[in-house]
Specification:
Helix content: over 70%
Strand content: under 5%
Shape: globular
Number of strands: 0
Largest sheet: none
Length: 453
């Protein structure tokens, strides 16, 4: 039988990918020569913003380290305790990563063997190496995101306390938000850089769908680290918090969170390795997974399209840029009045930055739709509608979470009031509020899914 030349076959595939889009796009990805060049243009906005995020992280970390510590306000004990927490967190993660290194190494060998035998592309024996490389890079970057988050958090904690003690509540908020932003942009920067570079490398001598399929191993590597980081750190912190800190409070009469109880140090170590390092790896995996899921649908769905392949990568870049602008809108005029502080006003300080970032993201998303699909594309504007629905859904669920967990609102206040009659009523009310709190997000997600369909 007659076979077409490889270049002609690729041209037909590209034509098939772009023919199903119903608009007149401004950016004609199908006109680019070669799969690798097309993939590079699809991924380059995310790559550029990823590098920019990492540079911004360097700036944030430098700014954070310049903030005052306990020594500056004649409280060197703060630095002593902070150092204990940091060294404990480092020791824990080193031990955890030793076991994870064995796990990752074993799966790397398994993937090499598995995809060398069961190849994605026939008559090519590099698939095993490609999948294993993606898995290994995903796992390493996920672990790096967690480690960096822990490092920034342990440096930022004491500086936040000093800023609140020696300045205003806004000073403390700015220091805390600087540390949190360094972690957030670090996670996004590592994820954006890693997934785009590996996608471009995997596209060499491959078609679009094959390149994305190799990246599934990247997500698998990130998920593996996220799972163990969250579980291991979570078990450690709960054991220290409940098993020792609470026992010291009840049996030894030591105040909760009193540094005289060694378990308090362990509890704070657990918070940093579970809630911070684990969360960093978890967010890395979620960010990568959402991009790869959309890219997989674009190349393996019923209507494959180059524009749809670029869409999630360009949206990720737009979100990154919006977050950078929103960072500068976070501040508060509230005073530190302890439990009497207006938590809603503090939340608004954070939400203001979120709203600015979201608004800019929606504007940039509309521009992306016009560039990739054309102003007259019905399918493009439908996807934009899904973006708006998803953004609104996340914001509504966030406000619902705030309502059920903030002591400014009825649900949490009702649990507090039940403490007047004993621990039994606290448990009953707490479980009831917890069960009811799952209903709104379930309904909202169902409505969002139906609306997008």
């Amino acid at each position: 039988s007659c076979q077409l030349p490889l270049s002609a076959a690729r041209g037909i595939r590209v034509a098939a990918m772009v023919a199903l889009d119903d608009g007149t796009p401004i950016v004609q990805l199908g006109d680019l020569e070669g799969v690798t060049m097309q993939i590079l243009v699809c991924a380059i906005p995310t790559l550029v913003l990823g590098i920019f995020s990492l540079l911004f992280v360097c700036f944030l970390r430098t700014s954070l380290l310049k903030c005052k510590t306990g020594k500056a306000i004649d409280q060197p004990k703060l630095d002593y305790l902070a150092l204990k927490i940091k060294t404990g967190a480092i020791a824990f993660l080193k031990e955890e990563y030793k076991y994870l290194a064995v796990y990752v190494s074993a799966w790397t060998v398994i993937l090499i063997v598995l995809f060398t035998v069961e190849r994605i592309v026939e008559d090519d024996y590099t698939d095993g190496v490609r999948c294993a490389a993606c898995f290994l890079v995903g796992a390493v970057l996920s672990g790096a995101a967690g480690w960096f988050g822990m490092s920034v958090a342990t440096d930022g904690n004491v500086r936040t306390a000093v800023a609140c003690a020696s300045g205003t509540l806004n000073d403390g908020l700015r220091v805390a938000f600087c540390a949190g932003s360094a972690m957030g942009f670090g996670v996004v920067g590592l994820a954006s850089f890693g997934v785009t570079v590996m996608l471009v490398l995997m596209s060499i001598n491959r078609q679009h769908g094959h390149a994305v399929q190799y990246l599934h191993s990247f997500g698998f590597g990130a998920s593996s680290i996220a799972l163990f980081a969250r579980v291991a750190g979570g078990i450690y912190t709960k054991a220290a918090d409940v098993g020792a800190d609470l026992v010291g409070k009840v049996e030894a009469g030591i105040d909760e969170d009193d540094p005289h109880n060694p378990a308090v140090i362990a509890d704070n170590v657990g918070d940093n390795v579970g809630d911070v390092a684990g969360m960093g790896a978890d967010l890395f995996e979620s960010y990568v997974g959402s991009i790869l899921a959309a890219a997989t649908l674009a190349t393996h769905g019923a209507h494959p399209s180059l524009a749809r392949l670029a869409f999630p990568f360009w949206l990720a870049a737009a979100g990154n840029l919006g977050s950078f602008v929103g960072y500068f809108f976070v501040s508060t005029k509230e005073k530190g009045d302890g439990i009497n502080v207006n938590l809603g006003a503090l939340m608004w300080a954070l939400e203001r930055g979120t709203y600015v970032a979201n608004f800019l993201f929606l504007v940039l998303s509309a521009v992306i739709v016009i560039l990739l699909f054309g102003p007259d594309s019905v399918a493009g504007w439908k996807m934009y509608g899904c973006v708006v629905i998803g953004l609104a859904t996340g914001m509504i669920i966030g406000k619902g979470t705030e309502y059920f967990t903030s002591f400014d609102y009825g649900p949490t206040i009702s649990i507090k009031d039940r403490a007047r009659t004993g621990p039994a009523t606290v448990i009953i009310q707490g479980m009831g509020v917890g069960m009811v709190s799952t209903l709104p997000p379930t309904i909202i997600l169902a409505v969002a899914i139906v609306a997008c369909s």
